[in-house]
Amino acid sequence: MRPGIHEQLSSVTEAAACLLWGSVCPGCGQPAARLCRGCAQAWAHAAPRDVAGELGGGAPQGVAVWAATTYAEPWRECLVSFKERGAWWLAQPLGEVLALTIAHAAPALASGVYLVSVPSAPRAIRERGWDTTRGLARAAAVTLQGVGVQVGVGARLRHARGVRDQAGLGAQRRSQNLAGAFVAAGDWHGRRVVVVDDLVTTGASIREAVRALRAARASVLGCAALAATPRRSGG
Fold it and tell me: Cross-referenced InterPro entries, in alphabetical order (predicted)?
C-alpha cells in the first residue's frame, strides 16, 4: 500500500532533520533518527531458529541453542553499533527480538526462569562503560514480563581467570581458551535458567556458561542469542 501524504511528509521531515544533525540508522547508514523503517522491519521479521547443528564446537549437551538471525547485514551493523559505538538505545528493540528467541529456546517459560548472560570480558565492560550482554538480558526480561511471563535476570557469571580475545581463534582454540573460565557465585540449586548472548560462533562461550551454571546446581533450560555466525565450510 502506498504511504499517505502525512506519512510521506513525516519521512521527508525526519530525513531532513537527520541530514542536518548527522543522525543515521545504525543498520544501513541511511538518514534516520533511530532505526530506519527497513532495518526495523528486518528485526521485526527475524525468524528464530535452532542453530545447535551449526556451531563449530557443538552445542552444550542436552540444551537447545536458538538464534534470532544470521550475523549478516543489517543485523551485524546494529550489533556493532550497540556494543562498540554507544547506541545503547538499541537495547530495547534488540531485547524484544531476544525475548522471542528465548521463548523458542525454552518453551517452559511460564513456570518462571532466570536469564543469565554470558559474561563480557572485564576490559570490554570498562571500555564500553557497561555490560552490553547483561543489558540485552534485562531488556528481554522487561519484554517477557510485559506479556505475563515470570522471568528475572540472574546474578552475573564472572571470570575465574584471564582469557585471550576469542577473535581469530578456531573452534578448538576457543574451547581451550574458555575451559573453566566462568564461575557462578552462590548456590543455584533448583533455579531454572536460560543462557543468553548477543552472538554465537562456535558455541564455546555458551558451553562454558552452561558448565559453570550446572556446577552451581542450576537447571539450564536453553540458550538464546541474537545472531549466529555463518559456519565456514571446512570448519
Answer: ComF/GntX_DNA_util-trans, PRTase-like, PRTase_dom
Please tell me the total number of residues recorded for the chain in this structure.
235
Contact in structure between 80 and 112 (CB atoms under 8 Å): no
* Tens of pLDDT, residues 48-97: 999 998 887 778 888 999 999 999 988 899 999 999 888 899 999 999 99
End-to-end CA separation in angstroms for the chain: 45
Domain extent listing, the chain = 1-42, 46-228
CATH 2.60.40 fits 46-228, yes or no: no
Chain position carrying cell 565456514: 232
200 and 206 Cβ atoms separated by less than 8 Å = yes
Tell me how far apart the alpha carbons of residues 23 and 17 are, in angstroms, rounded to a whole number: 8
Residue with the three cell numbers 558455541:
203
Those residues whose C-beta lies under 8 Å from the C-beta of residue 202, and which sit 6 or more positions away, are 55, 56, 57, 170, 171, 174, 175
Residue 143: which of 203, 196, 188 has the closest Cα? 196
